[in-house]
Amino acid sequence: MARVQASLTVQVNGRTLTDKQSKAVLALYLNGTQRAAARALGISAPVLCRHLRQVEVKAGAPIMECGARGTVLNELGESIAKEQLALQGKLRERQQLAVACTPLTEELLMQALNAADPKGEIDVVISDDRHNITDFQAGLLDLVLLDDPLFAYESEGYSWEEVGNDRLLHMRKGDDYAVYRFGPQRLGFLSLDAEKTPYRVVRTYSSLGALIRSGHSHFVSEGLLVRKGYRPRGDEPAIPYAILCLYRQAPGVEEVLRALRPNAVH
Question: Which of 93, 117, 244, 260 sits CB 3.0–4.6 Å from 152 for a disulfide?
Fold first, then answer.
């Protein structure tokens, strides 16, 4: 089993990766395809591939596998990428507080920042839960507002607080399901598993409008539908869930938390 660790550089089984090698792995992790990774690094695809193969030699095992979108990192490759990301977070001296949310929780966070950050000095990232959690664990973020509360429960060693609540609606249109990129999707599919309801996940949507027009069964947060002007309705009982905030102790975090709490006055 390959052993991955971070020192001043990323090491695999005691062998140090060069800066180009570790950045090549991280670029593939962040960009998803070799072509996009090479473009992000400003190098050719063959050069990127050479760096990645050199990492495999040092690891003594493959770090890539074939996926639906082409060559992607396997579990070992992702471990190396996350160590590089963590190393960057440890070495990066951030002058401002950094917070993150998703499109679902954006309005809640922005309202809080109106009160907690009147000078607009806090760095804000808007992405999906998985990306935000990865950056948080790497030390690049101080506070993350989550769609999926399960991420907070799974993140050992960090503090979290409930700052709101919503309901997950179930739109049942058959056994074929689409996954929405945002929201507590796992809660919906866990409920199907618990009820032993047959289903097939056929695709993922990033656009709410496309999801609704798709004709596939899906789960979507009631609050998002209201904000986007849709009339919320579900074909099954709604699933209530908590909106949680994951955070670390840092200057300015308490002010944001105070503004996020349900009884806050903005």
Answer: 244
Range of the domain at 40: 4-91
Q: Which phi and psi (to 5°) does residue 50 adopt? A: -65, -45
Burial class of residue 33 (count of CB atoms within 10 Å of its CB; 0-12, 13-18, 19+): middle
Nearest Cα neighbor of 15 from 49, 54, 73 is 54
How many CA atoms lie within 13 Å of 213's alpha carbon, on the beta-carbon side? 5
Q: Are 22 and 85 spatial neighbours (Cβ–Cβ below 8 Å)? A: no
Give the CA distances from residue 112 to residues 122, 234, 258, 266, in Å, rounded to whole numbers and listed in that order. Answer: 12, 30, 8, 7
What is the tens place of the pLDDT at every residue in 110-163? 999 999 999 999 999 999 998 898 888 777 889 999 999 999 988 877 899 999
Task: Find the CATH number of the domain harbouring 54.
Answer: 1.10.10.10
For the entire predicted model, the pTM comes to 0.65
Residue where one domain finishes, among candidates 59, 91, 123: 91
Task: Tell whether 119 and 239 lie within a shared domain.
Answer: yes
Question: What's the one-letter identity of residue 23?
Answer: K
